[in-house]
Amino acid sequence: MLASPTRVLSREKQPRYLSYLLRLWQVQENEHTTWRASLESSHTGEKWGFADLDALCVFLHEQTTILADSDRPDRFSETCQV
Length: 82
Known about the structure:
Blueprint: E1 20-29, E2 32-41, E3 47-50, H1 53-69, H2 76-79
Antiparallel strand pairs: 1-2, 2-3
């Protein structure tokens, strides 16, 4: 049986996505309960920790903005340091 040919996509047609494992937990500080979070990149294994959900949201917004802006040639120098 022959293997089916592998379809090679050009850079422009490759799906662009971010993938993370998200962990959430609560911590009690005095009488205040706070959600903590961590993300682990499924691509690189890199990990990030967040003191609260606001910090998590800021990080995700920054990452998606960088990804969206990398499609624009005029923004290359701002997103990639060569």
